[in-house]
């Protein structure tokens, strides 16, 4: 009864789904941000958070599972266990979240709930069993039969809101009996009481059975599977009954705070209103009224006008406004008790900060934040938009811990890193819609380096005659490659060595010669990249008593080193990444083939104990890794994951070196 009608996310009818209020969500037809709401069902108050399903927005699922006491894993009746189901399953197991499963879309062609339940067991290794049997599938889907209560439910009315109880159809009684025995069998694996009755061939009564399911769900050892069609509103009311019957209320889910005064020892959270306050800020949202902070109250009460302490930074703030969220609508409330999910205005804090009502040193544990896998270079189209651009990036990184920003030292580009191409694309799009900042997107430049292949002597004279004092400096010496051992010994990748004897090069100019060497090292002659693995030795030179100066020697030395390096078999080095790919074993051939096409060297391949997954380690040039996340997902039906980190720089092949030099010369001409 929270909303009056059901609408599609895409909003083809001009309305759109209530819980997906962002324009981008309606355009793409997917959830991007999690949204909170609450409802009253029978005599229970249920807080609900709707999270995205796409792997790029995984942090929204992560933060919701961190603060909720139970979850409903929604599966497609046709596709079954999809890539995101695997990711969400990992997250649920990480936070020990008790769950129900709901097999959706049974009105679609090709739906098969039995296949989906088998996949839950095989792929997610869950002890799952159906507590319902569908009455008809595809276009004949009329309702569900409750195996435990042994009742049939039919959904009538325009939107399935009229639930009619009935008798089990005669032709389905045997099937229901078979499924009931199967449920008891699965349950007896994880509950001693049912196991005892099962061995004695006694049939437990309804209350005993429900109590056993509740116990095993809360201990995360069993998953009851419900069925229906959400869009047609079939099977949703029994699912809400299941939430009340089987998922824990706040005091039943064990939660712990960490005592900072006692070496972060875990302290149980009581979930009682009369105890001192403990609340966790789990999501931040910028609105026109300022920062909106979503809070989960673990114990105690939040009251309007009270003072709360931020345990993480010690600040004390007064609560001006508490609201209960219904997607993007707000309802002002004066107080909220333990177990509730509410939002507050007027509080400046970070995601995962803990709040208390006194100077207590208890904090709630934070959440797992995955490392970004993909980067893009972004810059505003117009220079006068820089302030808005910075403000937007500040807001987005505050909201989303998986979005990282850094400025590249070499190229001065702003590099945006995130969970995938769609993730970054959505933020670039939001920047244009919410802040009016149009962005130019480019591939981040690969961080190449330059070095030399052999020793080369130099004798370089810099002469410049103008009116008055001119410039004169002559330097003599050589450049040579440094070995790995020598670099480790000196703790640097380049070295300047002064072997001058006498005063041909006056001692006051030695530091200028070293600076000139560093100028040449910072920008090599091939592609303007930094130079490494090179030693420069200065052993002689000449000066002029009037025309020589710091600037003359610095310029002369930079010219000498650059010129010598061009003749010393120069080479370009490219970054090689250590890449780890985890995939289901049936996709191994396609994935290995793709890594080889990207010039990858496979180091190791390991198969998991049960033979279902494969872990591949490879070394691949960074320049060949762009677009890999999308390719891996399409090759593995989205079930593959990869991580990469910098390994070392190695020489590029001659043809790539020529290409890079031509590209650099072209860019130089264009910029001039």
In the sheet with the most strands, the strands line up as: 17-16-22-13-14-21-18-19
| CATH-scheme architecture of the largest domain | 3-Layer(aba) Sandwich
Global morphology: elongated
Strand elements, count: 37
Helix content: 25-40%
Number of helices: 16
Computed Rg: 33 Å
Biggest beta sheet attributes: 8 strands, antiparallel
Average residue-wise pLDDT = 84
- The structural domain count equals 5
Low-confidence stretches: none
What fraction of residues sit in β-strands?
Answer: 25-35%
Distance between the termini: 66 Å
Supply the CATH class of the largest domain.
Alpha Beta
Based on secondary structure, the structural category is: alpha+beta
- As for the CATH topology of the largest domain, it is Rossmann fold
CATH superfamily of the largest domain: P-loop containing nucleotide triphosphate hydrolases
Spell out the blueprint of helices and strands.
Layout: H1 23-28, E1 35-41, E2 44-50, H2 58-67, E3 71-76, H3 83-94, E4 99-104, H4 113-122, E5 128-130, E6 132-135, E7 143-146, E8 151-156, E9 162-166, H5 173-188, H6 192-199, H7 206-218, E10 223-227, H8 236-246, E11 256-259, E12 265-268, E13 278-287, E14 290-299, E15 302-303, E16 307-310, E17 316-318, E18 321-326, E19 329-333, E20 335-336, E21 341-345, E22 354-356, E23 362-364, E24 374-380, H9 386-399, E25 404-407, E26 414-418, H10 421-435, E27 439-442, E28 449-451, E29 456-464, E30 471-481, H11 484-490, E31 494-498, H12 510-522, E32 530-531, E33 534-542, H13 550-567, E34 571-584, H14 588-597, E35 601-607, E36 613-621, H15 628-635, E37 641-651, H16 654-671
Parallel strand pairs: 3-4, 4-10, 5-10, 28-32, 31-33
Antiparallel strand pairs: 1-2, 6-7, 7-8, 8-9, 11-12, 11-23, 13-14, 13-22, 14-21, 15-20, 16-17, 16-22, 18-19, 18-21, 24-26, 24-27, 25-26, 28-34, 29-30, 30-33, 34-36, 34-37, 35-36
């Amino acid at each position: 009864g929270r909303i009056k009608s059901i609408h599609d996310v895409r909003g083809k009818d001009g309305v759109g789904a209530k819980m997906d209020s962002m324009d981008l969500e309606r355009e793409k037809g997917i959830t991007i941000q999690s949204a909170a709401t609450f409802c009253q069902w029978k005599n229970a108050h249920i807080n609900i958070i709707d999270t995205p399903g796409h792997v790029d927005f995984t942090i929204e699922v992560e933060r919701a599972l961190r603060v909720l006491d139970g979850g409903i894993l929604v599966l497609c009746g046709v596709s079954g266990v999809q890539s995101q189901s695997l990711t969400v399953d990992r997250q649920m197991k990480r936070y020990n979240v008790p769950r129900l499963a709901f097999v959706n879309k049974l009105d679609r062609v090709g739906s098969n709930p039995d296949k989906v339940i088998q996949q839950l067991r095989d792929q997610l290794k869950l002890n799952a069993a159906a507590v319902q049997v569908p009455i008809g599938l595809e276009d004949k889907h009329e309702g569900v039969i409750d195996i435990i209560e042994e009742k049939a439910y039919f959904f009538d009315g325009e939107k399935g809101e009229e639930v009619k109880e009935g008798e089990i159809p005669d032709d389905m009684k045997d099937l229901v009996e078979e499924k009931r025995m199967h449920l008891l069998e699965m349950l007896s694996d994880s509950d001693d009481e049912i196991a005892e009755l099962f061995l004695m061939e006694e049939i437990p009564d309804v209350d005993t059975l429900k109590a056993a399911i509740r116990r095993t769900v809360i201990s995360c050892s069993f998953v009851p599977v419900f069925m229906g069609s959400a869009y047609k509103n079939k099977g949703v009311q029994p699912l809400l009954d299941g939430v009340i019957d089987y998922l824990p209320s706040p005091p039943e889910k064990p939660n712990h705070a960490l005592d900072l005064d006692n070496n972060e020892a875990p302290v149980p959270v009581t979930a009682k209103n009369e105890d001192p306050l403990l609340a966790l800020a789990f999501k931040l949202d910028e609105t026109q009224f300022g920062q909106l902070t979503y809070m989960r109250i673990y114990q105690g009460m939040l009251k309007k006008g009270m003072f709360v302490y931020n345990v993480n930074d010690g600040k004390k703030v007064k609560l001006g406004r508490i609201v209960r969220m219904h997607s993007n609508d707000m309802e002002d409330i004066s107080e909220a008790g333990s177990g509730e999910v509410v939002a507050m205005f007027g509080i400046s804090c970070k995601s995962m900060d803990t709040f208390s009502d006194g100077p207590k040193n208890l904090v709630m544990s934070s959440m797992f934040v995955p490392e970004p896998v993909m980067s893009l270079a972004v810059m505003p189209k117009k220079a006068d938009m820089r302030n808005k651009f910075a403000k937007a990036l500040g807001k987005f990184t505050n909201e989303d811990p998986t979005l990282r920003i850094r400025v590249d030292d070499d190229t001065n580009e702003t590099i945006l890193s995130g969970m995938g191409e769609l993730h970054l694309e959505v933020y670039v799009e939001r920047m244009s819609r919410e802040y009016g900042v149009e962005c130019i997107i480019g591939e981040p430049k690969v961080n190449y380096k330059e070095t030399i292949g052999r020793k080369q002597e130099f004798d370089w004279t810099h002469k410049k005659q103008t009116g008055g004092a001119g410039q004169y400096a002559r330097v003599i010496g050589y450049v040579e490659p440094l070995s790995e051992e020598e670099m480790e010994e000196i703790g640097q990748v380049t070295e300047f060595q002064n072997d001058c004897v006498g005063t041909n090069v006056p001692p006051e100019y030695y530091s200028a010669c070293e600076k000139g060497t560093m100028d040449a090292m910072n920008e090599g002659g091939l592609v303007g990249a930094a130079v490494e693995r090179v030693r420069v030795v200065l052993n002689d030179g000449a000066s002029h008593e009037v025309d020589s100066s710091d600037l003359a020697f610095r310029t002369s030395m930079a010219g000498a080193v650059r010129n010598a390096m061009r003749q010393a078999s120069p080479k370009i080095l490219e970054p090689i990444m250590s890449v780890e790919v985890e995939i289901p074993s049936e996709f191994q051939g396609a994935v290995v083939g793709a890594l080889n096409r990207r010039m990858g060297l496979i180091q190791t391949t390991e198969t998991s104990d049960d033979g279902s997954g494969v872990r591949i380690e490879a070394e691949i040039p960074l320049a060949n890794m762009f677009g890999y996340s999308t390719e891996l997902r399409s090759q593995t039906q989205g079930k593959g994951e990869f991580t990469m980190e910098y390994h070392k720089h190695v020489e590029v092949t001659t043809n790539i070196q020529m290409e890079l030099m031509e590209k650099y010369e072209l860019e130089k001409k264009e910029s001039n």
